[in-house]
Amino acid sequence: MKRKASISHDEAIIRRLRRDPDFAAEYLKAALEDEDEPRVLLIALRRLAQAQGIARVAKAAGIERESLYRALSVHGNPRLSALVAVTKAIGLRTHRRSHSIDI
């Protein structure tokens, strides 16, 4: 009996992100909720970009492919404008919510 070749956890996540938009939305939502570690958001955006194809996302965001790789790398420090461009390129939209503060 042949055994199926195993894949890494990262590759399994990327494959699921590619085929399941609801999972992708929840995945990003969870990353945004991790306020203690901002790198979690970079990891999530990198995996989402990989799921859709880095070259395609870079082109849609108007960013050089190499610059996108650097920005979303483990040591990346992307500008806010780059993050906004990437989120739009991968099809994510933000929604404004009104908040009230009781004093």
Q: How much of the sequence is in beta strands?
A: under 5%
Runs with pLDDT <50, length 5+? none
Class by SSE composition: mainly alpha
Instruction: Find the count of extended strands (DSSP E, 2+ residues).
Output: 0
What can you see in these coordinates?
By secondary structure, the chain is an all-alpha fold. It has one domain. Helix content is 61%, strand content 0%. The protein contains six helices and no strands. The longest helix has 14 residues. The radius of gyration is 16 Å and the shape is globular. It starts with 8 loop residues before the first helix and ends in a 14-residue tail after the last helix.
Summarize the structure.
The protein has helices at residues 9-19, 21-33, 39-52, 54-61, 65-71, 80-89.
Keywords:
103 residues, mainly alpha
Topology of helices and strands:
Blueprint lengths: L8 H11 L1 H13 L5 H14 L1 H8 L3 H7 L8 H10 L14
Helix pairs in contact: 1-2, 1-3, 2-3, 4-5, 4-6
